[in-house]
Every structure is written in structure tokens, then in C-alpha cells.
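quick one, 196 residues, struct below
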Amino acid sequence: MTNFVHLLIGVISTLTCISFINANSLPTDVTTVANASIIGLIEVKNHSGCFTDHDCSDHGKCLNYTDCHCDRGWITHGNSAESNTYCNYRQLSKKKAFFLSFFFGIFGTDWFYLSRANLGYIIAGIFKLLLGCGCCVTWLLTYFGSEVQNSELVKAKLRGISICFSLLVFAWWIADWVRILGNRFPDGRAVGLTPW
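---
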């Protein structure tokens, strides 16, 4: 049993290191809009047809009748040539995402907050919620449930399961912090978060 626990600790440590390396690598397929929002710049796009601030969806300023300079936290997203809507997407807060992840991240609240109705994010949040609840339940069973059964084998199995759940949840929790702080955790529509 101890060999299995050591192997599991090694695998979790390796996966955690890989997630840190992945979080610190440069993105390869992030759009210009996401890049501008990730590094904290105010979104500036050149557009023809900007005549008033209303053309910037009232969330930006029209300059020189060609440029919409979006307010902080607003970007142009999903714009087509026919729609001519600019500064139409409110970014989610990086600070709020981090603190949700820090305090309630083991229950998937960071994934639910960032989902923007993206089914993949919602499923990941539910999976993280189940893992977090499983971690809590197995620790409770380890300390309180093993008193009912006096078998040392049952206690050892419960401790092993508790350690497995704990390591998995902890690694995912830390990886999400690193992704949020490293600007590698966009919302469900692949748009970066607003800077601190």
C-alpha cells in the first residue's frame, strides 16, 4: 500500500510540474483580442464608421471617427463586418476569479464563474465539485467512520483513498491558481480576464 501511495505522490507531483510549465509557456492560439486583454492593455481597434460614443456600445470613446477605445473591462468580441458593434463584451475579473479559486476552488467555483455558459467549463466544475466533496467525505470517513469498524485493513484503505483524493484535488487547485495568475485561464468564450 505504501508503494502505491509513493507512486501516486510521484505522479501527482509530475502532473503539477507539467501544469506549472504549461501555465508559464506562451499561448499559441490566443487571438489579438485575448492578448490585449491578457496583458492588461485597453482594447484599441481601428474601425471605419465610428462616429459617436454610441457606436462603441456606450462602453468606450470614439476618437478621430475611426477608433473605438474601449473602457477598462470591455473589449470588442465576436464582431463581424455587418454588425459594427464595438466594446460589446464585458470581461470577467481576474481578482474575483482568483479569490473564488483560493477560497472555494476545491468545489469548482472558479470554473463555474468563468464558464459563461460553456458546457466544457461547467462539466469541469461539476467534476471538481465531486472530487472536492469526495475528498471531504473520505477524510470524514477516515476519522469518524473507522471507529465503527475496528479493522486495520479498512482504516488503511480509507487513508489511502483519502490521500489519493487529497493529492488530486490539491494539484488541480494549485494548477488553477497558477493558470489564473499566469493569465492562462480565459473565460468560457476564450477571452482573457481583466487585470488586477
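The longest strand covers residues 60-63.
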